[in-house]
Amino acid sequence: MNRDLRLGLLAAVAAMVPGILLVALGVSGSLAVIVTIGCGVGVIVTLGRRWHSQATKRSESQTTHLRSAIGVAATAGGIPTYWTEHSITPETLTQIQQLIAALGVRSVLELGSGISTLLIAHAFRRSGGGHLLSLDDDARWAAQTTATLEREKLDSFAEVRVAPLKDTTSGSRTSPWYDLSALDPQARFDLVIVDGPPAWKGDALARLPALYELRKHLSDNGILVLDDAARGGEREIAARWQRDFPDLHFKMVGLGRGLFVASVQKSVLDLLPA
Ligand SMILES: C[S@@+](CC[C@H](N)C(=O)[O-])C[C@H]1O[C@@H](n2cnc3c(N)ncnc32)[C@H](O)[C@@H]1O
């Protein structure tokens, strides 16, 4: 039984309780009926307001999603913008693109390739410079993103490297995470986008190692953004990072599926909505 139906049935039963109690206490039947009707109306109004507010929020979020998707498609220069449940949301990508422009970001490291890789590479081509390196644990998916980059002649602005997951001990925990041997140990990035490994495979803390492993790769003005930050696992990751990195500055942004931002410079956070 779905949650709303369960809540409705529970509320219907609860609305009848005062009437039944009144009858049990010997109060007249007509008063019990009036009280029951009153309780029923109260329940209907309360549940109706709750459901109306949920439906309004859903529709507002879909409108934001559509508006962002249309905006991104308009500037995508014909690159296919297919949004799946795995891809970054258009509103999150738009926010990241704004950060890239505002901060003059030239070097990006991404964990988890896809539409974000293509569209950031396209933005670099339009603005005249910048490079994105994307690590992906899935060789087939990496090859598909690479093929699109080549077809769209974006391969000098972005590269996808296969980085298989291997057991990594980070933040007092061992879990499968990207093998960084594909990464130059001296490399520094202005922006790190954490959109993998996929947490839907079962480990809610799959992305925990990112900041522990990549802090040393952030430039002096660097930022690291964690996508899907509204999920329970990512909220736990955000709390652990805040505890373990007192030298960094953090902000949770209520966009898309949530974006948690860690920044070397505090002033960068002022560029973000609350
Ligand atoms: C959250 S996804 C990365 C999404 C990517 N940043 C984007 O905006 O499209 C994490 C991983 O899921 C895998 N994946 C499988 N199917 C996918 C799909 N349809 N779209 C994106 N990633 C997919 C890839 O290995 C990818 O690295």
Walk me through this protein's architecture.
It is built from seven helices and nine strands. By secondary structure, the protein is α/β, with parallel strands linked by helices. The protein has two domains: 3-72; 80-271, Rossmann fold. A seven-stranded mixed sheet has the order 3-2-1-6-7-9-8, with helices on both faces. The chain has a two-stranded antiparallel sheet with strand order 4-5. The mean pLDDT is 92.
Feature tags:
two-stranded antiparallel ribbon, 46% helix, alpha/beta, binds S-adenosylmethionine, Rossmann fold, single chain, 7 helices, 274 residues, 7-stranded mixed beta sheet
Summarize the structure.
With 274 residues, the chain is α/β, with parallel strands linked by helices.
CATH homologous superfamily title of the largest domain: Vaccinia Virus protein VP39
In CATH, the architecture of the largest domain is 3-Layer(aba) Sandwich
Average of per-residue pLDDT values:
92
Rounded Rg: 25 Å
Instruction: Briefly note the structural class of the backbone.
Output: alpha/beta
Dominant shape:
elongated
Determine the CATH topology of the largest domain. Answer: Rossmann fold
Give the N-terminus to C-terminus distance in angstroms.
37 Å
Number of domains: 2
Task: Name the strands of the widest sheet in spatial order.
Answer: 3-2-1-6-7-9-8
Main sheet, how many strands, which sense, barrel? 7 strands, mixed
Number of strands: 9
Strand content: 15-25%
The oligomeric state is: single chain
Write down the CATH class of the largest domain: Alpha Beta
Helix content: 40-55%
What ligands can be seen in this structure? Answer: S-adenosylmethionine
Low-confidence stretches: none
User: Could you give the order of the helices and strands?
Assistant: HHHEHEHEEEEHEHEE
Q: Helix segment count?
A: 7
